[in-house]
Sequence to fold (754 residues):
Amino acid sequence: MPDLLLELFSEEIPARMQAKAAEDLRRMVTDKLVAEGLVYEGAKAFSTPRRLALTVHGIPARQPDLKTERRGPKVGAPDAAVQGFLKATGLKSLDEAKIQRDPKGDFYIGLIEKPGRDAIDVLAEILPVIIRTFPWPKSMRWGARSGKPGSLNWVRPLHAITATFGLETEEPDVVKFEVDGIETGQTTYGHRFMAPDAISVRRFEDYEAKLLDAKVVLDPERRKDAILTDAKQLAFAQGFELVEDQNLLDEVAGLVEWPVVLMGSFEQEFLATPAEVIRATIRNNQKCFVVRDPKTGKLANKFILVANIEATDGGATIIAGNERVIRARLSDAKFFYETDLKTKLEERLPKFEQIVFHERIGTQAARVASNTASAGYLSAFVKADEQQSQRAARLSKADLLTEVVGEFPEVQGLMGRHYAERQGEDDAVASAIEDHYRPQGPKDSVPTNPVSIAVALADKLNMLVSFWIIGETPTGSKDPYALRRAALGVIRIILDSGARLPLRAVIPELIERIVKIEAVLSPAGNAIDVSATLGGQLLYSTHIGVNKRPEGDQELASMLREAKADFLPNFRASFSTRIANGLLDFFADRLKVQLREQGARHDLVDAVFTIGEQDDLWMIVRRIDALAGFLNSDDGKNLLAGYKRASNILGIEEKKDGRKYEEKPDPDLFLEPEERALAAAIEQATSRSTTAVRSENFNAAMGEISELRPVVDAFFEKVRVNDDDPKVRENRLKLLNEIRSATRAVADFSKIQD
Fold:
């Protein structure tokens, strides 16, 4: 079957856009082909700084013929309905229609035949639409046609479109169309400087080979491999080791079509600047890699650059140009660093009074103050030194005001640690300043030092609490303040460290350290302002919801006049409970996401979370693990089946009777030995499993519940629940409810999916 070759040749495509653009091109073309009935065998897209290319293999030469039946009006329907049916189906008369018998009557059926078109004609129709509607994040118009309606918007000026279609064994045809005055053909161009002449291509195989001869490596993965291999070899030959950087490698591969790896150097004196600053300077400004001494692990005064040309002087001029720029940038960085060292972190903090963190939350100074108080409070839960935790939290954001972090935001925290060490702070404090941002993603490490854990938890939990107070919670895909990431960070820290945080109690305590709630009766005496001062920002809140200022609430005004002493504590408790409940639901959702990614069943999270007031995430996960193991056993599967059977019977009968059977059964009404055995087993299993849960021995608790399995099976085999005697029936339904209640000692089995 024929193959398609498509290339869109333009000016420089930004490196950050190339990978997505290639994938968008592949997706858009193949989706359209499938929608047109042209099912292909395979497709692959490529990108370079000057072109997007796509090859699609095994496209049918022609669309299949389509035959569809369309149901028309009833036999004997009005003429207007008949004429509409004939027009819609293309039939000349009702003689060409079939009649289909139906319980509602006889109906006309029209057979519509749509002959397939040649695939090349379909391509000529869909490709220009795709090009015109291509989803570039940013695009432009150019040239004389740019002022005309409907002119093409493209990422950079588009110069040529190559589009061929045909069998591998034959000369392909050009897919003929034009976009904005650019007509398709078989011509592309090689490297801008080393082989700029036009190249005539036929199909993908000779297209890729001819580009390679013209100094263009089409496949970005091949360019990455070449850069990485050559850079490692060049560093090794000089006695160094490449500091690998995948993000930089991806970017550099999008900047060159013919990668040439070279090495430059800079003055030894710059190595007195922290390695992270040197690396950030060289990486951000010149897109170059750094190298290190493999024996010491310290950076060397060398760097590796990737050129886009084989220079006649061996790259000497290119190296010299990069060295000149890097020398100037490193000089600036060294000056910034030395300037920063003249001012201690503590001395920078007053500036935070003038910096607003969020207009409805307050200043950075207020944020630092609440983080400091919260870190001290949380230190007891993670066995950290309270004073060190508070000190680290107080200094944790100070490096945001330094020159180096202002120039290179990605080294925040890291530079704070450097400055803290230089000014003589305790090692635990310095480490916590760097680590409190972690983890910043699923692959980032988690703090392990107790002080770092206390500060990281304070920072993330305070962030979540603050935004929940003002009602700025994530909605759909929108999460501008990265609150989902903060919640996942809290979860990972707790699970990795084994920290025991009773969140239902902790969250109100954090609120007290963030929010000052006051209630004031209006001068007229008929309205109330309940204000929450969050970092100096006045918020209005009432029992009807956060951030709603009451114009006049007679009930609240009356409450304040009659019981002013009791009102504020009650309001504060209600306020804190609402925030805590909302955040716990959010943590439950995030925990489900994490456990699902790890292969766990999210329904088990629901089954455990809904038991009582579960808020200790570490304990919850242990409980979920024990429940998963139990349900994988035969006892667990059979007990779940028995539970479901009991629950289904109860559900039906309770709905029929309009009541719940939640009272204890009467032992005097047990008629069968299986009833007495089940009641005794439930009492024993409930007592023992509850004891095991209290001691957090969840495997033992599951084992005790599993003892119910044989007596539950025996009960259903020998006992008829819906006995003719109403009292016996009622008592047996109460006994079924005891099965449901007993399992709640370990989980809510109603949440578990079969």
Q: What stands out?
A: The first strand starts at residue 3 and ends at 10. Residues 345-508 form a domain with the Hypothetical protein af1432 fold (CATH 1.10.3210). Confidence is low (pLDDT under 50) at residues 519-553.
